[in-house]
Amino acid sequence: MRLAPGYFSAAQQAALVEEVLALAAAAPFVTPRLPRTGAAMSVVQTNFGPLGWVTDQALGYRYEPAHPETGAPWPPIPDVLLELWRAVADYGAPPEACLVNLYRGGARMGLHLDADEAARDAPVVSVSLGDTAVFRIGGPRRQDPTRSFRLASGDVVVLSGPSRHFHHGVDRVLAGTSRLLPGGGRLNLTLRRVTPPQ
After folding, report:
1. Which residue range is the domain that position 29 belongs to?
2. Does the residue 197 lie in any domain?
3. Is residue 198 part of a domain?
4. How many domains in the chain?
């Protein structure tokens, strides 16, 4: 796991938030639901790129080429994020999905694995924008020991190598630690390669 604190400057963060929210106007945030139970997750989500990660009670976790409510293709991944991938991913193919999680109020993310991608060797590149998050990472087994640390606005995390398959999550978001997002909260952008390169 690699952490690049303050990778994006304040001006770059503001520009990226503006672009993300503009794209989200065309691909509105939706409330994802867990398989089996149909329980709502506490974050809301959208995606950019050729593929988007979605989940619902009927079909579960998967990648789809279109927004589940509008039926329209996802907007393209912003150029600044494609440049980030080229700079830090050390992978010979571009990302195919940018999952956007919006945390407001008491939203959190339990320990989980990103395991729905066929390109198992590709890293996950994560960007934090807005309020500081308490991020937790463990190991390949759910019962492995964990450690936590804070991710501030502009920080970038790269999960590659063994850490690509480690459990991780967000314990909580520290409200009021940033004024970047209109209405407060945190945006997390995760770049993923879904299919193995040909």
Report:
1. 2-192
2. no
3. no
4. 1
Which tens digits make up the pLDDT trace of 80-116?
999 999 999 999 999 999 999 999 999 999 999 999 9
Q: pLDDT by residue (tens digit) across 5-35?
A: 999 999 999 999 999 999 999 999 999 999 9
Q: Tell if the pTM clears 0.90, that is, is over it.
A: yes
| Angle at CA of residue 172, ends 166 and 138, nearest 5° | 15
Angle between helices 79-88 and 10-26 in degrees, nearest 10: 120
Buried b (16+ CB within 10 A) or exposed e, 126-152: bbbbbbbbebbbbeeeeeeebeeeebb
Q: Could you tell me the two tokens for 136? A: 């937790």
pLDDT at 198 exceeding the cut of 90: no
Beta carbons within 8 Å of 49's beta carbon, 6+ residues apart:
74, 76, 77, 95, 96, 97, 98
Question: Given this model, what pLDDT does residue 17 score?
Answer: 98
- HSE-up (13 A, CA, CB side) for residue 131: 22
- 156-159/97-103 β-pairing: unpaired
79 φ, ψ (degrees, to nearest 5): -55, -40
Dist. CA 102–CA 116, nearest whole Å: 20
